[in-house]
Amino acid sequence: MILVSRCLTGAKCRYNGRGKPNQAIIDFLRDLQEGVDYLLICPECAGRLPIPRPPGEITGGDAAAVWQGTARVRNAAGDDYTAAFLHGAQDACQKAQKHHAAAALLKDKSPSCGVHLVHDGSFDGSTIPGYGVTALALHRLGLTLFSEDDLPALAEFLHHPNQDL
Which of 30, 46, 131, 156 could form a disulfide with 135, with the two C-beta atoms 3.0–4.6 Å apart? Predict the structure, then answer.
């Protein structure tokens, strides 16, 4: 079982009320069965954040610092989304455990789902290496994480799940 960021399938669940459809991922999932092979998630929806809303970024640290309570997820006006992001991450972790997920295919650069990159908290589009809040929690659970740019590696993982990538 893999968890998949819902927005990558075109679902209009992002902060701006749009999806981020990735045709390669949509085609990849076509050969799999939802609920058996994969489960769609949106931690920000699970955290009950409104759609649309101003975008949030991790400020004052990284995802680990958010979990430690020393950094926050805020929008540019300073509105605090941290509790919703933590709740959404906990929901994703519960689903991962319930469904015995081994991996997650997540939207990179997201403050929730970033696998390789997240926005740096300056709200100018700049990114830095790091995890989003949910991605870190799933990583800590032992899931192997992939972004939309890692689809070949995910396919290899699914064919040979016990090999190191």
Answer: 131
Which residues constitute the domain of residue 120?
2-159
Number of domains within the chain: 1
Given a cut of 80, whether residue 164 has pLDDT beyond it is: no
HEC sequence for the chain:
CEEEEHHHHCCCCCCCCCCCCCHHHHHHHHCCCECCCEEEECHHHHCCCCCCCCCEEEECCCHHHHHHCCCEEEECCCCECHHHHHHHHHHHHHHHHHCCCCEEEECCECCCCCCCEEECCCCCCCEEECCCHHHHHHHHHCCEEEEHHHHHHHHHHHHCCCCCC
pTM: 0.95
